[in-house]
Specification:
about 160 residues, alpha/beta
Length: about 160
């Protein structure tokens, strides 16, 4: 299975990029984690949320499970899991018939309602606000932590 973390722009902070790549390598024994910047994928001339939203629609296929990270609540879809719940979710998706698991990270203005409505789940990492470069690192670590929980690896302890 492939998990794609979709961001608006490339991660530019060197230490954070190293951390993301560190966790991606640790996950490689179980699955592939990619970081995709919509500005790069679609060479968007305007890097606003409209082009990011359009890119999400282009990337998310019917066989993919789309999790949108957004701070705004959406009735019935908002989800803020702890690590054990996140591991259970990851296990369920990996055992399902989905081709990919996509995590779409919102830009500074969040997502339009159309993207939120398309999402299979709307997730928030925390009520705190984080720099956009930091969110893929947090996700990559939680994906690795979930895999170690599922495989009874001592990392989580």
């Amino acid at each position: 299975m492939t998990i794609s973390i979709i961001v608006q722009d490339k991660v530019k902070t060197p230490g954070i990029l190293e951390g993301i790549n560190y966790y991606r390598k640790l996950c490689a024994g179980w699955l592939t984690v990619t970081i995709d910047a919509t500005a790069d994928l679609f060479k968007a001339s305007r890097r606003g949320s409209a082009s990011h939203d359009s890119a999400i629609f282009s990337l998310a296929k019917p066989t993919d499970f789309l999790v949108v990270l957004d701070r705004e609540p959406l009735l019935g879809k908002r989800w803020s899991p702890d690590s054990l719940e996140f591991a259970g979710f990851l296990d369920e998706i990996m055992r399902g018939s989905y081709h990919r698991l996509l995590f779409a990270v919102g830009g500074p203005d969040g997502f339009k309602q159309e993207v939120l409505a398309r999402a299979d789940r709307v997730m928030t990492i925390s009520p705190l606000t984080f720099p956009h470069d930091l969110v893929p690192l947090i996700l990559a670590e939680q994906i690795y932590r979930s895999l170690t929980i599922l495989h009874r690896h001592p990392y989580h302890r």
